[in-house]
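Researcher: Next sequence.
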Amino acid sequence: MARKVGVIGAGLMGGEIALVFALAGHEVLLNDRDKESLDRALARLRALMEKGVSRGFFKVEEIDPTLSRIKPALDLAAFADREFVTEAVFEQEQIKTDLLGRLAAVVSQDCIIASNTSTIPISTLAGALPAERRSRFIGTHYFSPVSRMKLVEVIPGFDTSEETMDAAMAIMTEIGKTPIRVKDVAGFAVNRMLHAFMIEAVKLVEEGVASPEDLDTACRLGLGHPIGPFALMDAVTSSLCVQAQEIMQEAYGERFRPPALLKQRVRAGYGGGKGKPGWFAA
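Model: Next structure:
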């Protein structure tokens, strides 16, 4: 059965979250701050699908029908009839809570609101919602690239109902994901493991033990990882990694303090991202 779905935030994560819902046959509204951002997102999704055809990820005949299910929406008022809405805006608590408060005033009482936050506790974000709305709020943390990565961490807050939890798990399965239930703690499960790993990798470079290139090779060939930690930092941006580590440092202490070298490289403009220098040349 097709659902009425909404995604707020048309960046790399939000755009692909919209895509996986559309691929599963759901009707999706995609919101961002301006028309140009939405146009770029839709063009990026078309290019992603066209490129994916040659790799066997998509079929040519599904591109137009899939993208036709994603409708741009500049006004949150359009989300009044949505059944499941995912917030996927910038990973900053104030930005997310401001948005969630506005969204709660628009959607129906039955609508499930989900956050794609990667580090901020769900119960913290739930504080932006009226008390009566918190039972229908949950975390759904996807992994990049969303169109290919199967895992979703599903995180209930203090007030999330089991009915909402069950519904979210079922919806994630419907769209082809493998959901796991994770306790509501800063960084959840995967990011706590990942950033401890990244921090140690950067320290190995700081200490001159091995180069980023050799450490990435070691992780691919010795640990069976599909991508090394430095290439991953370049893909997701080192600035986002520092931000996540600082959130977890506040929660757990010194073990998550961002390494000095990582922070220095971000300040120097070597944070990575598409077309930008990071640990490796752009």
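Model: Residues 4-181 form a domain with the Rossmann fold fold (CATH 3.40.50.720). The beta strands are 4-8, 27-31, 70-72, 84-87, 112-115, 137-142, 151-156, 178-181.
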